[in-house]
Amino acid sequence: MKSVFITYDQAHQENVINALNECSARGYTYFEGVGGRGSVKGEPHLGTHAWPTMNSAIITIVDDAKVSRLLEILHNYDLENPLLGLRAFVWNVEESI
Q: Cα 31 to chain center, whole Å?
């Protein structure tokens, strides 16, 4: 099992949910109003007067076989709108109950 942590501009909300559905990643936890700044390009998303936009984040646990397809779909969304920002990070899941 893998944990996929996805951070994205709120404008990508529908895209991210569609990607999860397409990959049958049914369970996830959604975080609304996440601030941050990308490490390479893009503007900060801090919810302030100067930087009013915000991000969201989702974490999901999926079978190893689903990870590549999910990342591919998310990467394509990011390529379509590179200034919005969308990143995904994958970790091993050691145990679960």
A: 10
Cα separation, 71 vs 48, in Å, equals 30
Would you say residue 86 lies in a domain? yes
Q: Which spans in 1-97 are helix H?
A: 13-22, 64-80
Rounded Cα distance, 73 and 86, in Å: 11
Residue 54's alpha-carbon distances to 23, 41, 81, 93, in angstroms, are 26, 16, 16, 28
CATH number at 72 reads 3.30.70.120
Q: pTM for this structure?
A: 0.91
Q: Which of these ranges, 67-71, 88-92, 93-97, has the smallest mean pLDDT? A: 93-97
- Do the domain assignments include residue 97? no
